[in-house]
Specification:
Layout: E1 3-9, E2 18-27, E3 30-40, H1 64-78
Antiparallel strand pairs: 1-2, 2-3
């Protein structure tokens, strides 16, 4: 299984310290789900809920490693926008 996550910060809806991130998840070049989360720079912890409706090719919800990969991609998308 090859997973690809495409993320982008919605510049029209994002104002520091709050960033809206859209993500799409693909497995073996097949779209399996998407979502929108808010990243808040001043939060002690950004806890993103990746919905169970995003399911792999086997029809099961994503495992913890796949969810972790999505969260890491979201964090990476926001990093260039963070102001010191």
């Amino acid at each position: 299984m090859t997973m690809e996550i495409v993320t982008r910060v919605d510049r029209g809806l994002s104002v520091d310290p709050s960033y809206i991130v859209r993500y799409q998840v693909f497995e073996d070049d097949r779209f399996i789900g998407d979502g929108v989360v808010q990243y808040h720079r001043q939060a002690d912890h950004n806890d993103f809920a990746i919905p169970d409706t995003i399911r792999g090719g086997d029809g099961k919800p994503l495992d913890s490693e796949a969810r972790k990969k999505i969260i890491e991609s979201i964090n990476e998308a926001v990093r260039p926008f963070l102001q010191p």
